[in-house]
Automatic annotation (TrEMBL):
Its EC number is 4.2.1.1. Reversible hydration of carbon dioxide. It catalyses: hydrogencarbonate + H(+) = CO2 + H2O. One of its GO terms (molecular function) is carbonate dehydratase activity. Belongs to the alpha-carbonic anhydrase family. Signal peptide: none annotated. The keyword Zinc applies. It comes from Hyalella azteca. InterPro entries: CA_dom, CA_dom_sf, Carbonic_anhydrase_a-class, Carbonic_anhydrase_a-class_CS. Residues 195-213 have a biased composition (Polar residues). Residues 1-213 form the Alpha-carbonic anhydrase domain. This is Carbonic anhydrase. The lineage of its organism: Eukaryota, Metazoa, Ecdysozoa, Arthropoda, Crustacea.
């Protein structure tokens, strides 16, 4: 069965972006949460949040590499099993399904990213480092045109405590991002008096994992 993206074209009633000093994370409120299934996934999963990983310069940033190539930005769209609570899903093999999308450097802004990145000035000035996204948008705008070509493996979350609970799907086709948009992400505070940069985990050894295409 091919990948099924249910309600991925639905615009949420609200979106909230927050700087948690690890990344820029965005949640959304829906009447019915978007879901993914098929494409070799063992269960049906519903949307939880999306967040980004980037580097201090354009030579690094992504947490996955393709033929040793590292991209300047990687987006993770996180989903959890519809039949489990998030707490339980974190303890289960295949409890979470994360979509990874690469971004390559471009001369032009990515309009889909601009919706959430335009909130960064408000986030930087807010005591709680949180902002409402002025123009909420559908998750489908963050997907590549070609969702048939992807890499699949069983792995972990890339942030502590790195639960071994994730079915990873990393799409082969990159989207684009401008240097100005990357600089917006780099302007976020890291909570230690500096800027939030290099918030990616270095690519890890396979340790016996099988990656399928």
């Amino acid at each position: 069965m091919p990948f099924q993206f249910t309600d991925y074209h639905t615009v949420p009633t609200s979106m909230t972006a927050v700087n948690n000093h690890h990344t820029l994370s965005t949640t959304a409120t829906y009447v019915t949460k978007p879901r993914i299934s098929g494409g070799g996934l063992p269960y049906t999963y519903e949307f939880v949040n999306f967040h980004f990983h980037w580097g201090a310069d354009e030579s690094q940033g992504s947490e996955h590499t393709i033929d040793t190539v590292q991209y300047p930005l990687e987006l993770h769209i996180v989903h959890s099993r519809v039949d489990e609570t998030m707490d339980v899903a974190l303890t289960q093999p295949h409890g979470l399904a994360v979509l990874g999308i690469f971004f390559e450097l471009s001369m032009s802004d990515n309009p889909a990213l601009e919706h959430v990145l335009s909130s960064i000035d408000v986030i930087n000035a807010a005591p709680d480092l949180t902002a409402q996204v002025v123009n909420p948008y559908a998750l489908a705008s963050l997907l590549p045109d070609d969702v048939r070509r992807f890499y699949r493996y069983d792995g972990s979350l890339t942030t502590p405590v790195c639960n071994e609970a994730v079915v990873w799907t990393v799409f082969a086709q990159p989207l684009h991002v401008s240097r100005a948009q990357l600089d917006k992400l780099r302007s976020l505070a890291d909570g230690h008096g500096g800027q939030l940069q290099n918030n990616f985990r270095n690519p890890q050894p396979l340790n016996g994992r099988t990656v399928s295409l």
